[in-house]
User: Which sequence fits this backbone?
């Protein structure tokens, strides 16, 4: 049986949590991700940028009533990567 | 949550946990439901009174109140957007359903005037009231909307047999049951959630 390699970008607790949240919604604010993952703003920001650099998510920075707002959205590359990651996990679990 | 490498089992558990958390994030203040519910109730009761009481005449068409409600809805939507941290696919679907409902009601009322089919407009309006209400209730698993939608369809059937001014009251009652009662329930739940998050529960 052939083992699929687990995507190292996704195989980390916080990044996987962020991707799992984003795959379930259309888009989410940074504050929502922070609240749901219980991560610190600094750490979350670093991990989100790693996901962005990998091309898995899109980040929109804007102002809402003079307050800065960061909106994150998973893109098609991210969805495909997430699906592949889950398939790879399943191949390990069926051992 | 830290930067930690997970086992396969832990990864699957984390995915399940996060997806469940995101799914359970239902933000609905109930304001739109109350706003349109009361506007429809007031409009149709006023029209009924105009039609049945000879001395009762308003200096304006009661349905113009809908325009004020439309402006208020835009204002409240913009205000609530500030507090919305997330947009779910369910919310997006419901928004499209209500948008198509609004356009359908507009076309139906215009058709009622142009094609002179006024007698059938009110039952059809009740039929339309039931569709988005039922869909919203089913998608969000919110029984008050489901019950409200069913009542709209029951009133629609009754309205088909009563070609009289009584039909206006049926539409008003439909709006009350489909939107006002669920609106109050959503509002209560909304304030409860705010209190919970303030207390850190």
Assistant:
């Amino acid at each position: 049986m052939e083992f699929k390699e687990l995507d190292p970008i996704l195989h980390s607790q916080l990044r996987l949590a962020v991707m799992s949240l984003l795959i379930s919604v259309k888009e989410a604010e940074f504050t929502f991700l922070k609240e749901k993952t219980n991560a610190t703003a600094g750490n979350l920001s670093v991990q989100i940028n790693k996901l962005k650099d990998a091309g898995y998510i899109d980040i929109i920075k804007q102002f809402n009533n003079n307050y800065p707002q960061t909106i994150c959205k998973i893109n098609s590359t991210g969805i495909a990567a997430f699906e592949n990651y889950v398939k790879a996990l399943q191949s390990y679990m069926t051992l | 949550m830290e930067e930690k490498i997970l086992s396969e089992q832990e990864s699957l558990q984390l995915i399940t946990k996060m997806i469940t958390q995101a799914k359970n994030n239902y933000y609905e203040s109930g304001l739109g439901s109350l706003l349109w519910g009361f506007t429809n109730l007031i409009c149709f009761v006023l029209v009924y009174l105009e039609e049945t009481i000879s001395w009762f005449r308003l200096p304006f068409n009661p349905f113009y109140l809908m325009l004020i409600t439309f402006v208020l809805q835009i204002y409240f939507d913009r205000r609530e957007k500030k507090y919305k941290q997330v947009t779910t696919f369910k919310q997006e679907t419901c928004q499209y359903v209500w948008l198509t409902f609004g356009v359908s009601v507009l076309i139906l009322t215009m058709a009622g005037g142009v094609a002179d089919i006024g007698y059938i407009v009110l039952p059809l309006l009740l039929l339309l009231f039931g569709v988005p209400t039922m869909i919203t209730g089913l998608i969000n698993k919110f029984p008050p909307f489901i019950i409200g939608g069913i009542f709209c369809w029951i009133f629609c059937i009754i309205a088909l047999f009563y070609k009289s001014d009584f039909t206006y009251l049926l539409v008003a009652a439909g709006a009350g049951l489909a939107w006002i009662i669920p609106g109050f329930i959503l509002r209560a739940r909304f304030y409860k959630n705010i209190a919970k998050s303030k207390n850190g529960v």
Summary: The first helix of chain A runs from residue 13 to 24.
